[in-house]
């Protein structure tokens, strides 16, 4: 009876501890949400003030020539004309072309960068054979290779995907390598002592510890990928957002040029949000760690 009572008490204490843990996380989550809301409010106010100042400088005050620095109102008018379906001259085909190339190049960079980073960062042979090559290749100015890539693969989508891949793969590769080197070897050894297989060790120990580094690389790769979109299409392409940007700049249609830049900012921001959403779904335990760390 005494043993059964102790087990019951231990079970009750564990349940209470779990409830307390959930209450603490809920409390921290509310505080973090309030801080995020305040940060977003400050950001909106700052952007509104900047746009208002910009409108005055390029408009009533006449400090800048609106032909070279159009006011935000002219840029938003141009954006409305370029909107799919409702706009006067929609650029749906160009947006789809750029997004499709970005998607192919980014996914390929994420898969290759993560895989090679795992091999190099978590194995001695991978670090010895591929580590120096990865670091030296990272130092190569890949943007300068764009003309050569276009000469080899032509003006179609293939050259754009290659350029995006080369710009986006190294942030994922390098951060994954560094994350693999920072994995707690004590936990790996403990898993092996308890009979964990190599696959179980990778899935239960290494990947959870490595995921924040991979996420950092994926976020950086988003920006590098969209830079690759612009470089590839500015260098040579028949369609795409970069082509519109180049054509409008040549024709001094600066409102359209700024409108394309706004579209690229929106697309990259949405992609970053998608990467953050992946974090909440694939690694929810890091949400709890972030909440505890933020306090």
Automatic annotation (TrEMBL):
What is the protein named?
A: ABC transmembrane type-1 domain-containing protein
One Pfam family cited in the UniProt record for this chain: BPD_transp_1
Coiled coil regions in record:
none
Under the cellular component aspect of Gene Ontology, which terms does the record hold? plasma membrane
GO terms under biological process:
transmembrane transport
Record key words, sorted: Cell membrane, Membrane, Transmembrane, Transmembrane helix, Transport
Keyword Phosphoprotein in the entry? The reply is no
Entries under InterPro entries matching the protein? MetI-like, MetI-like_sf
Q: How does it sit in the membrane?
A: Multi-pass membrane protein
What is the native source organism of this protein? Answer: marine metagenome
Its subcellular locations are: Cell membrane
User: Carries keyword Transport?
Assistant: yes
Indicate where this protein is primarily found. membrane
What are the ABC transmembrane type-1 domain coordinates in residue numbering? 95-275
What are the TM regions of this chain, as residue ranges? 38-57, 103-121, 133-155, 161-177, 210-235, 255-277
């Amino acid at each position: 009876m005494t043993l059964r009572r102790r087990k019951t008490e231990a079970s009750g204490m564990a349940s209470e501890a779990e409830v307390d843990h959930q209450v603490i996380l809920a409390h921290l989550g509310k505080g973090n949400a309030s801080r995020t809301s305040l940060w977003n409010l400050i950001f909106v106010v700052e952007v509104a003030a900047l746009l208002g100042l910009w409108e005055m400088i390029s408009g009533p005050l006449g400090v800048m020539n609106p032909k070279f620095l159009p006011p935000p109102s002219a840029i938003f008018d141009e954006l409305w004309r370029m909107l799919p379906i409702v706009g006067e001259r929609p650029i749906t085909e160009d947006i789809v072309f750029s997004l499709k190339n970005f998607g192919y190049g980014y996914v390929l960079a994420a898969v290759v960068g993560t895989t090679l980073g795992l091999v190099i960062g978590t194995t001695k042979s991978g670090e010895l054979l591929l580590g120096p090559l990865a670091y030296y290749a990272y130092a190569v100015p890949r943007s300068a290779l764009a003309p050569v890539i276009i000469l080899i693969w032509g003006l179609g989508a293939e050259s754009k995907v290659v350029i995006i891949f080369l710009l986006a793969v190294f942030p994922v590769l390098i951060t994954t390598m560094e994350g693999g080197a920072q994995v707690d070897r004590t936990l790996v050894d403990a898993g092996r002592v308890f009979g964990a297989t190599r696959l179980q060790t990778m899935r239960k120990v290494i990947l959870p510890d490595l995921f924040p580094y991979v996420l950092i690389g994926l976020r950086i790769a988003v920006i590098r990928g969209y830079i690759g979109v612009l470089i590839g299409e500015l260098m040579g392409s028949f369609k795409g957002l970069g082509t519109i940007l180049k054509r409008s700049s040549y024709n001094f249609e600066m409102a359209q040029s700024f409108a394309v830049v706004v579209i690229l900012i929106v697309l990259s921001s949405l992609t970053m949000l998608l990467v953050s959403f992946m974090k909440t779904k694939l690694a929810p335990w890091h949400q709890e760690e972030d909440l505890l760390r933020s306090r």
